[in-house]
Design goal:
With 120 residues, the protein is of the alpha/beta class. Helices cover 34% and strands 18% of the residues. The chain contains 5 helices and 4 strands, in the order E-H-E-H-E-H-H-E-H. It has a 4-stranded parallel beta sheet, sandwiched between helices. The longest helix has 13 residues. 22% of the residues are buried.
């Protein structure tokens, strides 16, 4: 047995996003509150501090029950250095568009790594 958590134990999605994105995903059944009363989502509005976004990103990437972390791309831009430094396979980090901010592949850190890997 290894001391690391198995990927089979990672069963949740986590989301850092704007209100519309979070609402849609919660209606789809993504929301979860664990035994320590910790949510698997953060609603970001214009008043949300960058430090709060970074803290949520850190928490979600360290939790052993999260398989995928979704983050709106325009919110990832606020913590771009942190997002770009993230290299782990689990939880997988995916940048998603929002209603008011279209997806820009040029900013996606995962896509950049894939392109670098294939020499593009």
């Amino acid at each position: 047995m290894t001391s690391h958590t198995s990927f089979k134990d990672r069963t949740l999605l986590a989301v850092i996003g704007d209100e519309d994105s979070i609402t849609g995903l919660l209606l789809a059944g993504v929301g979860h509150i664990n035994e320590q009363q910790k949510k698997n989502f953060l609603v970001v509005d214009p008043k949300t501090q960058v430090s709060s976004i970074e803290a949520a990103f850190q928490e979600f990437t360290e939790r052993k029950d999260i398989a995928i972390l979704l983050i709106n791309q325009h919110i990832a831009d606020k913590i771009r250095p942190t997002v770009d430094r993230y290299q782990q396979a689990f939880p997988t980090l995916l940048e998603i568009p929002s209603k008011d901010h279209p997806y820009d592949p040029a900013k996606d850190s995962v896509l950049k790594r894939v392109q670098k890997l294939f020499g593009e």
